[in-house]
Specification:
It contains two helices and eleven strands, in the order ββααβββββββββ. The protein has 149 residues and is mainly beta.
């Protein structure tokens, strides 16, 4: 297995971890149908269907597939799109950005650096201080309240 470095918010430091690679059939067994379609097949949920719309308390949004820390709730903002939006990830070590020209659009896809889970897309129309809008699929995330850190 290969290893990568990610930022672990619970330990407040960069750690070396093994990449998580599983065949599609195994992800299908481990995830709900909606989680599988989004994270493994690059699907998207309907706007406004995310279970995290009303989550505003302190904590960390993590990858539903591998539990990697992705976004702090303090960076979440209301974008009006119907999807959870953040202006920056916990660390750029924890996400991978790559061009996505599917559906006749030029976008930047965001994936979990550890397991390759499709999370959503990032756009350059977010608020200060970064000007970024990480528009994520809520079903690709899970939330851990601050007390769980």
């Amino acid at each position: 297995m290969t290893t990568i470095q990610i930022y672990d918010a619970r330990q407040n430091r960069v750690v070396t971890v093994e990449n998580i690679e599983k065949p599609d059939a195994e992800w299908k067994k481990l995830l709900t149908k909606q989680q599988y379609e989004i994270t493994t097949r690059m699907g998207t949920e309907a706007p406004g269907s995310c279970p995290f719309t009303e989550v505003h308390g302190p904590g960390i949004f993590r990858c539903v597939r591998c539990d990697t820390d992705l976004f702090r709730s303090s960076t979440k903002f209301e974008s009006g799109t119907g999807w959870p939006s953040f202006y920056e990830p916990v660390s750029l070590l924890n996400v991978v950005e790559r061009p996505d020209n599917s559906l006749g659009m030029a976008r930047t896809e965001v994936l979990c650096a550890r397991c390759g889970s499709h999370l959503g897309h990032v756009f350059d129309d977010g608020p200060p201080p970064t000007g970024k809008r990480y528009c994520m699929n809520g079903f690709a995330l899970k939330f851990g309240p601050e007390g769980d850190l």
